[in-house]
Each structure stands twice: as structure tokens, then as C-alpha cells.
Specification:
Elements (H helix, E strand, L loop, with lengths): L2 E2 H29 L4 H14 L7 H15 L4 H16 L4 E2 L1 H19 L9 H17 L4 H17 L24 H16 L2
Antiparallel strand pairs: 1-2
Bound molecules: adenosine-5'-diphosphate and magnesium ion.
Magnesium ion (MG) binds next to loops.
Length: about 210
Amino acid sequence: MSVDATALERWLRAFADGIAAHADELTRLDSAIGDADHGANMARGTAAVVAKLDTSGGPAVLLKQAGMTLVSTVGGASGPLYGTFFLRMAGAAGDADALDAAALAAALRAGVDGVVARGKAGPGDKTMLDALLPALDALDAAVAADPGDLAGALRAAADAAAAGRDATVPMQARKGRASYLGERSIGHQDPGATSAALLLETAAATLP
Ligand code: ADP
Ligand code: MG
């Protein structure tokens, strides 16, 4: 089982649909510990990505276009971070026409490494990384155990992302706007971890 540009297009559309369906929730979460724009930011960015989808150049061209669109259309911290994620994925995809489970996991890992490099956050800082990092750890472990079961591996990654999202509630934010609140950031779910869990959930639903 491998992931080609058509599968990646399905994923990006599903992510945009998921963001649109959850935009109000994302904004509500961001109103508690930020500036109430995460839903609007992500909805605008992912809609722009969908408007430019073109699979004719293969996976890397598709992912690079998505990344550049997110960087240029999303104000706020999340645009450059999600944009970097897809740009680094594109770099890792190289000129492959399709990615097998190991190559997909490596590309997603490159994307997450890009978010770390760009945002300088780590585990426990109450950011999107608290969903992304456990998801990639689960994905790598599942792919190593059974490279033939991409669907099962992505399901494990999506479940880990959701658990990571939920685990942001008791954390105190150490990065981004929410960190300005100090201890008052405790007790709220991180908006970026919530959108990142949607990214993995839609991957599990559409890529295999
Ligand atoms: P802004 O904070 O600029 O208003 P958004 O509201 O769109 O941008 O996105 C906020 C989300 O971005 C946070 O919930 C958090 O998950 C994520 N975030 C903020 N700073 C960082 C960082 N340095 N590294 C990773 N993620 C971050
Ligand atoms: Mg915000």
C-alpha cells in the first residue's frame, strides 16, 4: 500500500473539511488562552490550499504548494508552522511518485522536525507538538512492527495525537501566545494541538 499525490490530495481536502467543521471550536479554544483566531486562521489557510490543489506534479509539488500557501495566507504562529510542516514533508518526499509506509512516516517525521526547528518548542510546552510528537512516535513504532499495515499505523498515530491533544489540558504553556498567561493557561485544551489531531485523524481516514 502506498500513498500517491491523489491520496495526499484527499488528505488535504479532508483536513480542510475537518478544520471548517471545527473552526468554531478552534476559535473558542483560542479565545480561552490566545486571541480567538485559530479557527479563522486555519479555515482561511486550508481553504486556500484546496483552491490550489494540483496533483499533476506528484507528491512533492503538491505538498510544497500546500506549505507555501499556508505560510502566505495564515497570519499568526500556526501558518508558518503548518507551512513548514508541509514544506519539509515535500523535501523528504523528493521525486517519488508514491510513498510506502516507511517513506510516509519519514516524510511526516521531517515535517514535525521542521515544526520543532521553526518554533523551538518541545514536548510538554502545550503546543501542536504535544499532538504531533506522540503521533509520530506511534507511527514509527507501528511501521517498524508491520510495514505492510499502513492503515493500522495511521490509526495508531491518530489515536496518539488525540491522546496528546487531551493531555495539553493540564499543561502550562511555555511557547506561543498562551505562554503569556502563565499558570492561567492551565486547564484549557491547546487549539494547535486540536487542529494537529485533526491532521492525523484525516490522514488515517484518507491516506491508506
Ligand atoms: P497565534 O498564536 O499567533 O494567534 P494561532 O492562534 O493560529 O496563532 O495558533 C496558535 C497555536 O499555535 C497554539 O495553540 C500552539 O499549538 C501553536 N504554537 C504557538 N507557538 C508555537 C511554537 N513555538 N511551536 C509550536 N506550536 C506553536
Ligand atoms: Mg491565535
